[in-house]
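Researcher: I'd like a candidate sequence for this fold, 265 residues long. If you have to choose between options at a position, lean toward the conservative one.
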């Protein structure tokens, strides 16, 4: 019998591991994510997901599918976060259904519910619609879910989605307007670190929906007239261009800085 007691001479050692395997596997995954992202057909319509951004010119570049500056496409890390967000949406939807909510996320043909305006040049697709459920709230109601990092999630919990994430608030208002769902929307925020869910009912803001709809029209009309819309800032060093946080919310790094400011590399 093998004596495993102290002093038996048996040496406990960590298994040999190749420290490079993590780098190799992640590099392969990142490369696959980049290839998949580049193979996707660019949207050729103004999307509700970005219409609330501060800079109209940035929205216009996106609408026109203008090529991004060299080196400013989505990083693999960002693509991973996008993937986590999509998977998180499926998980929360399953939890809601398990709790007894009648949640509709797809049409009979398997496509998302959504709307199309301006001859197909302004579109949006909703996460789902709550037709009924065990919680006392008005039905039918728009359902929108976001998966957020811990700091961003805590800010939404503290201040609410309207103040914390104006871009999301714009989405909600537009969906409620165009999908004829005026009841308060159920917004759920999934904490990607702890998988906690923050929920809040967001009343329909008709004025915000009109403002965002007008912005979409402005982008389409200016593009048809080959007019370049104004920047949101007077300097390239502004947070709106380089990315960061302002009173209006978080801004991702603009992907068209060189083109916008005429400083191609």
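Model: Candidate sequence:
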């Amino acid at each position: 019998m093998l004596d495993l007691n102290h002093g038996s001479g048996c040496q406990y050692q960590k298994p040999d591991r190749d420290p490079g395997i993590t780098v190799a596997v992640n590099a392969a995954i990142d490369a696959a994510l980049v290839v998949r992202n580049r193979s996707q057909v660019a949207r050729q319509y103004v999307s509700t997901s970005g219409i609330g951004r501060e800079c109209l010119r940035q929205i216009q570049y996106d609408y026109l599918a203008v090529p991004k500056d060299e080196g400013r496409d989505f990083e693999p890390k960002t693509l991973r976060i996008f993937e986590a967000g999509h998977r998180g949406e499926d998980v929360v939807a399953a939890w809601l259904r398990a709790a007894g909510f009648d949640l509709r996320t797809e049409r009979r043909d398997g496509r998302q519910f959504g709307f199309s305006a301006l001859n197909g040049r302004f579109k949006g697709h909703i996460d789902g619609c709550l037709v009924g459920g065990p919680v006392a709230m008005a039905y039918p109601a728009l359902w929108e879910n976001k998966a957020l990092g811990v700091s961003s999630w805590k800010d939404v919990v503290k201040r609410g989605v309207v103040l914390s994430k104006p871009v999301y608030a714009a989405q909600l208002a537009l969906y409620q307007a165009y999908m004829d769902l005026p009841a308060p929307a159920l917004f759920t925020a999934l904490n990607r670190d702890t998988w906690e869910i923050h929920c809040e009912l967001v009343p329909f803001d008709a004025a915000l929906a009109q403002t965002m709809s007008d912005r979409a029209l402005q982008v389409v009309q200016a593009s048809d007239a080959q007019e370049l819309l104004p920047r949101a800032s007077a300097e390239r060093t502004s947070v709106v261009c380089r990315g960061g946080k302002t009173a209006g919310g978080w801004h991702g790094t603009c992907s068209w800085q060189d083109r916008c400011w005429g400083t191609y590399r």
